[in-house]
Amino acid sequence: MEIFPPIPLAEWKDSKETLHRFAQIVGKIRLASGVRRNHWWNVPCHLTGRGTTTRPMGQVDGNPVFTIDFDFVGHRLIARTLDGRAASFSLPGHSVASFYRETLNALRSIGVAVHIEHPHPYELPDAKRPFADDTEHASYDPFWINRYWQVLSQVNLVLEEFSAGFSGKISPVHHFWHTFDIAATRFSGRIVEQPPSVDPVTREAYSREVISAGFWFGDDAFPRPTFYSYAAPEPEGLADQRLSPAPARWVEQRGSHLAVLDYDDIRGGANARAAVLDFYEGVYRSAARLAGWDIERLASPGGITDPYAPAAE
């Protein structure tokens, strides 16, 4: 399979917007049914061999242990409980409203009752419209949805490789349903005092100093699939640092700066994966140096911290 196959936003924009809302519905079920973790690590979804999964949840809220999986090969949503009960339905042909209804019906049929506190999109243009009323978003092109999963799977492994080089506190590689990106975040351990005026999602996400690396598929504001990296809080002078490879650049984003590398600028190259890893590593080293992180102490070359283990070849 081609490394980083093309996925121009214009070709699947309507399907992406529908799927994004499908994912938010499942994500909000995850939010309501799992144990809270620092920095919201409990709510993103993870990759499987056929799509994405919520991972096991339930039990603490009176429900059986259950999972919800998107199958982007067979194009179905599948809900399962620990005792083997399962319910599923086909994804093509659904609006957000009918997907919302069928998902809750599927859960009820296997003995799961979930209350979503705010059944509306999160930080999307139609955030005031309940999922149950959204018949506008009803596109699902199986070809492009499968391509999305293929790209997501390849980027997931690049981020896993990048994550292996850091021995400090680091997030899993996970797919965020609220912004529809995939990322991994490194932490220095320093506390960041967020004022009460900051929204609770941001306060929890950035309660510690971080350097993050990720990828998104594009949206109206930034209409290209893009690899990105940033530091929060941003150390002084970061946006003056040189980026590699050459197409990478700094852009201003909400009063700070984001390092970006357009997917289409490198995807056809012979060493596309190496270019992305070089990009992530360069931003990390620049940000960590300016912020005073102990880069050498936090390193784990080849994913190894054992001083007696043979070096990875």
Structure description:
There is one protein chain. It contains six helices and eleven strands. It has 313 residues and is of the alpha+beta class. The chain has two domains: 9-133; 142-301, no CATH class. The strands form two sheets. It has a six-stranded antiparallel sheet. A five-stranded antiparallel sheet has the order 1-2-3-4-5, with helices on one face. The mean pLDDT is 95.
Quick take:
The chain is of the alpha+beta class and 313 residues long.
Distance between the terminal alpha carbons, to the nearest Å? 25 Å
**Strands ordered across the widest β-sheet:** 6-7-8-9-11-10
Helix content: 25-40%
- The total domain count is 2
Q: How is the main sheet built?
A: 6 strands, antiparallel
Order of helices and strands: HEEEEEHHEEHEEEEHH
Strand content: 15-25%
